[in-house]
Amino acid sequence: xxxxxxxxxxxxxxxxxxxxxxxxxxxxxxxxxxxxxxxxxxxxxxxxxxxxxxxxxxxxxxxxxxxxxxxxxxxxxxxxxxxxxxxxxxxxxxxxxxxxxxxxxxxxxxxxxxxxxxxxxxxxxxxxxxxxxxxxxxxxxxxxxxxxxxxxxxxxxxxxxxxxxxxxxxxxxxxxxxxxxxxxxxxxxxxxxxxxxxxxxxxxxxxxxxxxxxxxxxxxxxxxxxxxxxxxxxxxxxxxxxxxxxxxxxxxxxxxxxxxxxxxxxxxxxxxxxxxxxxxxxxxxxxxxxxxxxxxxxxxxxxxxxxxxxxxxxxxxxxxxxxxxxxxxxxxx
Amino acid sequence: xxxxxxxxxxxxxxxxxxxxxxxxxxxxxxxxxxxxxxxxxxxxxxxxxxxxxxxxxxxxxxxxxxxxxxxxxxxxxxxxxxxxxxxxxxxxxxxxxxxxxxxxxxxxxxxxxxxxxxxxxxxxxxxxxxxxxxxxxxxxxxxxxxxxxxxxxxxxxxxxxxxxxxxxxxxxxxxxxxxxxxxxxxxxxxxxxxxxxxxxxxxxxxxxxxxxxxxxxxxxxxxxxxxxxxxxxxxxxxxxxxxxxxxxxxxxxxxxxxxxxxxxxxxxxxxxxxxxxxxxxxxxxxxxxxxxx
Lengths: 333, 293
Fold this sequence. Notes:
The structure holds two protein chains of two kinds.
Chain A: E1 5-16, E2 19-31, E3 36-41, H1 47-54, E4 63-70, E5 73-74, H2 80-90, E6 91-94, H3 98-101, H4 108-119, H5 124-137, H6 143-147, H7 156-169, E7 174-178, H8 186-203, E8 206-211, H9 214-220, E9 223-228, E10 231-237, H10 238-241, H11 248-255, E11 304-306, E12 309-311
Parallel strand pairs in A: 3-8, 3-9, 6-7, 7-8
Antiparallel strand pairs in A: 1-2, 1-4, 4-5, 9-10, 10-12, 11-12
Helix pairs in contact in A: 4-5, 4-7, 5-7, 7-8
Chain B: E1 7-8, E2 18-19, H1 27-49, H2 81-117, H3 119-133, H4 137-148, H5 153-179, H6 182-189, H7 194-205, H8 207-230, H9 242-254, H10 259-283
Helix pairs in contact in B: 1-2, 1-10, 2-3, 2-5, 2-8, 3-5, 4-5, 5-8, 8-9, 8-10, 9-10
């Protein structure tokens, strides 16, 4: 079966002060139909850049190699017309800060109906009744009234639901959500996330979910990809990541989360996060890893495929990070 | 930007200088609108409301001071100045209006295209505008008059062209800032064409800047055209035009009758000040206050 979205060996370099700097190294992620994949990582780990490259939204001067395919068709080779059609029809994007991503001088109704009217040639009245129903679906009350309001009249949580409705409006096969709940407060976060999750499952859409929240990733995704410094550290089923991480980095991340049950100092991951350009060759986590050996500096950039998933750690077997995972094979690549 | 009460501002940093309610802060704006509205009324209906024939010569009442029959007095040929100023509004204001509309339309197009396309298109457009800055508008208008002869058409076209870079440069910088905002990227991800994004979304968001620059272009055009008329290169006597009136009235000043120059100048100043204040009001504090050299 062809994957819905297939990011293959993606490598992105951006010019910083005239020099090309690597931001993504050999990243391969695939999302199957109806599958939800979470990409977690610290700030600057390249997770947003990965999502943007799925829509070919990279800066014009970026040097890109590798490929992104949607249902087998290369996104990087599309001409501008089919690229527009792909962005309009195939993928819905939900952004981090809805307030910044919605045109402030147009009403919610204009924002939601515009693509239906222009791309689907729908009649304005038909489009309006359609988005009214969509707003109902995503839990926006008094939808008719909301359509006449401007973005500044709505709260952040409400506005993010509007954004979700706009992503659903074109009935895409894939939803890209780039930290959709980061700008919201915690109670709204869970509401918005469950609405998104429900809407996605009802409509049978795939999801690529970018977040730095491990709990959230585990809650809504089938599979979690952990990124660090532009590199994939590991990739396995979300339900097992917590108990059996396959990389020392994920293990350190999981150990550093606060717990309401234990009163103790938080364990921090030693050192500070490094960007892809600062990280050494080989395993980028090497300098901060307590299990580091000399051969780690020669580790390949792309993760190895193991029965339970993928890991970038060459010592995964020695460290006993693999054994527990061999319960069932999972599909990837 | 200073915070100003009763000015509605959207939270994203896009400035909408629309009054949410009419308060003390809006009084200058409303006053300017009333003044400009009155002048617009004169432009349209001037010849109909003028109490007397502006060109009727009556040498027996030459150079009279203000009176009941002649509110602003009479000129050297005994023509009613009040009527001449009312009728003169049309030529004095329509020319600058054409200049402002043309320069704003072309300048906005150039600015938005340059900011959106970047790269070599931007370089060509921006450098062309830089070169145009080197040529003063009045000089261009003089050249146009020298080539095409006296009259209002040639200077209007010349000044419209000369004002394009003043609008284009400011619109370009506004559009440059606007296009990096996330909501524009969001429209790109929805698969909208560049043309549609620019026209329907970017342009409305930079409209305050565009309008402010357009109003400024109007005042520059007004002053420059009046200067040409004053020098006798534009509108020709006996047509009543404010610039012509200022020029013709010079001789009368020495004969102790400054009314012609005085009242014509007063109308010029009122119009320019009202338009300038309005442009600063709608453009917010970002509208450049300095006039072109």
